[in-house]
Amino acid sequence: MEKLKEQFSSFQIAKRCALTEDPTYLLDIDISRGEGSHLLAVSCSNKSVRVYNRETLSLLQEYSSQPALLSGVRFAHACEGVLFSACSDGTVKCWDMRLSTPEPVQLFCGYPSNVFVSFDVSCNDLIVCAGTEKVEDDVFMAFWDARGCTNSASSRREPLGFYSESHNDDITKICFHPNKPNLVVSGSTDGLVNVFDINKDNEGDALLSTLNSDSSVSFIGWSGKEYWQVYCMTHDEGFCWWDLTQLDTEDQITLLHISDAREVVSIDDTKLNYLIGGLYHETSGKLFVVGGMSTGNIHLMDCCATGLRPVGTLQGGHSATVRSFYWNMEDNSLLTGGEDAQLLLWKPGAVEKAFGKKTSLKTASSVHQRVRVHQNTFKNQKK
Description:
4 helices, mainly beta
């Protein structure tokens, strides 16, 4: 724990992406995997996916989803140049950086009325799953066979099937298990976090557990030994943490439930403003939560049975709310993106060349507008 705290505290800015006047929020970050991988992808509020060299932060490629909004970005696990993102036009698009075409090589299509707001790819790259906004009384999780998605010819894929009964509002997050491709967890504005085994024949049998966050879910992840724990964050800055190994016992499944982290976490006598996400550190066996301040400061917190304990703070990088991060444990580097349109690479003891810091951008993205709607909808339901 002390070693990790020292590592985080030693982070300094190594690189910034080139500044532009484009008022673009950087909403989600993923990196390519495997030996020698060097790619970084960012989904942006201007409906584009940008791919960078993650060491130099030089822009390599940009893909447009116009006129559709993007919901996250994911690299394939086994192929560095293959990239996915869910779109509000009812498709999950797959791009292949090895080809010169700016068009997607695959379109994973849902029903015409589907608006996808979340998605993920299984750890073996076999299944793509996306979650929809609620339209009338319908909300879906759609599944596709992703095999062969690297073919050079563009083609459309129809779903293998849908889940439609386990949520009753927008499915805001989808997250496959890091090691078990048959397990997936979903989170929704209905406050529910559902764990599924998609190897089962039907949705009823596939639903292993329904967990209640009591609020609209904004982030979910896996943690713990062999990743048998699930945690989530909510749009009103709540935090929940559950142990799935206790499902068939009489022991308490809830490890921690915080209604509003802003009320219980204080860093240097200053209240936390928001939560960004979490990460499980396998070496230390610890779950960490990342949050921040509207000024751009980033806070790391240790998650334990008694609450969230501050570990360290990064400051002097961003000038506005940080929306996304990726901590690469393999080379101990941190990538962050925010509402100031900046993409930053942090490394221990790095020395940054002089480079002007971007001031806060005030243009609200459609993603923020949607989040505010989710908050208001849930609060109205609770009254």
